[in-house]
Amino acid sequence: MRTCELLPAINPASGRGGLRREDSGAAAGARPDAGIRPGRLAARARLVALAVGGFLLPWCVLLGVTLPAAARAQHWSLAWAGLDGAEAAAALATAVLLARGSARASLTAAAGSALLLVDAWFDVCTSAPGLDHAVAVVEAIFVELPLAGAAIWLAVALTRPPAGPSSRRPVVPQAPRSAGPSSRSPRSADPPPPDPR
User: Fold this and answer.
1) pLDDT at position 42, please?
2) Buried/exposed 137-148: b ≥16 CB within 10 Å, e otherwise
3) What is the rounded CA–CA span in Å between residue 149 and residue 143?
4) pLDDT at position 134
5) What one-character-per-residue DSSP string does 38-53 give?
6) Under a CB-based contact definition with an 8 Å cutoff, are residues 92 and 108 in contact?
7) pLDDT of res. 21
8) Tens digit of pLDDT for each residue in 170-179?
9) Is this prediction's pTM over 0.70?
10) N or C: less crowded end of the chain, CB within 10 Å?
11) Sequence-ordered list of residues with C-beta below 8 angstroms from that of 162, at least 6 positions apart, any chain
12) Dihedral of CA 177/179/183/184: which sign?
């Protein structure tokens, strides 16, 4: 299902009716990717991603061998407050973008998912042995990982291409759109209802 078809289903009460292909400028003949050469951009991005991944894999091995098992952090509370603040910002931005019917909600949902996974990882890896570690594991299993999974599901659902003709219909039926005065012709205009006063 395309983003432009899923968003109205998520937000049928939106005044704009969500993001629709005919509203996006494609109907006017404008290409959404005008000025961007996807082939060249994708080739460069692929090379950068390969270079970064190729560098980071041996770097992880080096860090695992050379870093001490324990260390003292100077700004521990600031680091955790910043991570949780970034998670909150991603969740709130996703909610706002969904309310507006914006396809960009997939980006903030994906970012929120990544932040939740990082939070779970570092909670479990940096917690003190005993009760702190048990709480971190329970929190990761029952809170952070399920929320991360839901956020990545949303991000994928908002960007998934249609599988066939049946997937062109929204998951949830849209509320009927009221035709404004500009969309009616003068011959088909209904008379206004009588004033109840």
Assistant:
1) 86
2) eebbeeebbebb
3) 10
4) 97
5) HHHHHHHHHHHHHHHH
6) no
7) 38
8) 444 444 555 5
9) no
10) C
11) 1, 2, 5, 168
12) positive
pLDDT digits (tens, 9 = 90+) for 87-102: 999 999 999 999 998 9
Q: Which residue type, as a one-letter code, is found at position 128?
A: A
Which amino acid, one-letter code, is at 64?
G
Q: Find the largest Cα–Cα distance for the chain.
A: 83
Distance CA 162, CA 157 (A): 10
Please give the single-letter amino acid code of residue 149: G
Helix 145-159 vs helix 76-100: crossing angle, to nearest 10: 40
- Amino acid letter for position 62: L
What pLDDT score was predicted for residue 39? 84
Binning pLDDT at 50, 70 and 90, where does residue 30 land? Answer: very low
- Residue 116 structure tokens: 């939740």
Contact 97, 104 (CB under 8 A): yes
pLDDT score recorded for residue 4: 46
Mean pLDDT of 138-142: 98
Pull the structure tokens for residue 101.
Answer: 């019917």
In SS3 terms, 150-184 reads as: HHHHHHHHHHCCCCCHHHHCCCCCCCCCCCCHHHC
pLDDT at 92: 98
Tokens of 188: 């088909």
